[in-house]
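task queued by scheduler; priority normal; single chain, no ligands, no partner chains; default sampling; output format set to structure tokens
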Amino acid sequence: APAALALTIGLFPPGPGRSRALGVWGAVSGAGGAAGVLLGGILTEAWGWPWVFHAVAVGTALVLAAVAVLVPRGGGRAAGRLDLPGTVTVTLALTGLVWALTRAREAGWTDPGVVGGLLGALVLFAAFAVIERSRPDALVPPRLFAAGRVTSGNLLMALLGSVWIALFFFLPLHMQQVLGMSALATGVGQLPLAVANMLGALTAPRLARRTGATATLTAGLLLEGAGLLWLSRIDAGGSYAADVLGPTVLIGLGLGLAFVQLTALAVDGVPGRDAGLAGGLVNTTRQIGGVVGLAVLATLAGSVTARAPGLASGPEALTAGYRAARPRTASSP
């Protein structure tokens, strides 16, 4: 996904064309998550969960074939060298951070492994920053953060990513484990969210031209926050129609608007030679924010579920855990 967004940014110069391209990108990106849940439900119901991974392998092969045929060549530009030290360092830092956050659920925050993982991640992130300053072909060149509003755009996108990924994790679990919906029904239940997300993303460029980028981004975040707060009030006796459908439509609209505007914000003012890199970076930041946010929220939800009255596997306990995570995602952006 980061490479695809980088290619999109590189192919479309600043202007209405890039805005429309980002709108289409946002619509496809948002719909893809819900489509994956739907397809996963169909495959699980028909042939069992292993077929989900078989489908991923087939889809990957199809994408590779499409890239070979459809993606334009690099235009004769010399390929840069791989920043192997930076790549290894940041990968180890993120792995240590996510591992420590996940382990904290069972071992506690004072566990030596958790503390060591967090400190190790901090040291590796610092080392990554030092390495990037000294590499001629840095994975993330420091000059990038001096251009436009790259820093603020990426910070906000990381928060948005934590909401995005956590939503697609917790919502299907709640629908199946608490509301008792089948895998197929859960997948179908994601369609309103996907449609709303597509509408928000496709509408964002036109709305930004009429009302301004800041107003559009603010509207998207407010819609998303309102939907998440509404969703956080669901209880174990709720239903899809009364408690899930409405808030997910609001969330989908808000995510679509905010995603397109934050992407545009993160590449605004970046020189042409770095535009593709800035686009890839902001999408990578969204995914990193999603992974870290999910680890934190899953730990929080698991802790609340374990402390809830009654059996930890009961609907009331599960709902308590999910509700503990959702208000925090609502307030993040």
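post-processing summary
- The domain at 2-44+149-331 is CATH 1.20.1250.20 (Growth Hormone; Chain: A;).
- Residues 272-307 form the longest helix (36 residues).
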